[in-house]
Design brief:
The protein is of the alpha+beta class. Helix content is 32%, strand content 17%. The protein has three helices and six strands, in the order αββββαββα. It has helices at residues 2-9, 38-46, 74-93; strands spanning 12-14, 17-18, 21-22, 26-28, 57-61, 64-68. The chain is elongated.
């Protein structure tokens, strides 16, 4: 399978057409072709170990990750924080940093100030 993927990605070329004018062909040296079936599959393979050693529940879909846990004590809150720290370490190791501007924290349940 690795050989098949490699052959599919090697020796790719592209050109641009704007208003009927065509550029010369140029080699594509990196990346996965847009709109290909392979792109999401490779991404899922790449992030497959994201939730190893995570005790909270983790949902992964496309480029979105959700981490959640039901907690009633400071120890359980710390468990969630430890998992978030592990996810941050994974992201730094693999250079797949989370976009913290898009991160949200949601508190649900009775008596939560942020609910």
């Amino acid at each position: 399978m690795i050989n098949w993927i490699e052959k599919w990605l090697i020796d790719r070329r592209q050109r641009v057409i704007v208003d009927g004018k065509v550029s010369n062909w140029k080699s594509v040296l990196s990346g996965v072709p847009q709109e290909s079936v392979l792109k999401p599959i490779l991404f899922l393979i790449y992030i497959n170990d994201l939730d190893d050693d995570i005790t909270s529940k983790v949902l992964k879909f496309a480029d979105e990750t959700r981490v959640f846990i039901k907690f009633n004590s400071d120890a359980e809150r710390q468990q969630l924080q430890d998992d978030l720290n592990k996810l941050t370490e994974w992201a730094e190791k693999w250079q797949m940093l989370f976009n913290f501007r898009k991160c949200k924290c949601r508190h649900t349940g009775h008596g939560n100030e942020d609910a």
